Amino acid sequence: MGARKRISAEKRKEALKTTYFAKMNNVPTSPRKMRYVVDMIRGMEVNKALGVLKFSSKEAAARVEKLLRSAIANWEQKNDRKAETGELFVTNIFVDGGAMLKRMRPAPQGRAYRIRKRSNHVTLFVDSKNTNNELN
What we know:
Layout: H1 3-17, E1 20-27, H2 31-41, H3 46-54, H4 59-79, E2 88-106, E3 112-128, H5 129-135
Antiparallel strand pairs: 1-3, 2-3
Helix pairs in contact: 3-4
């Protein structure tokens, strides 16, 4: 590995130590349906977001709730303390398209229609309130 590559890799590793996130890959839900749920909690305080997700009727909400709990646990692990009420916020959350399973459905007159079973990747970042104020 070259010197420049090593230096940039070390910078990336240092930046990851101060970011608190959780990632979920290959979720078998279409990205459009997942973005609808994700948009509900963007920028919210984590306890309020957990309540919104808990009582949402969307199937994707249960998966996002599990991901949010994982991100909170990652924050607690890196900071060696429990998250207090009103302290953590969902700073950034985004949904990317994942792999697509292509299937065929029988159609009239011997034809076949293509079915695309979509999946997605969700990345969720949490951070404390005082860190958000320092950045602005």
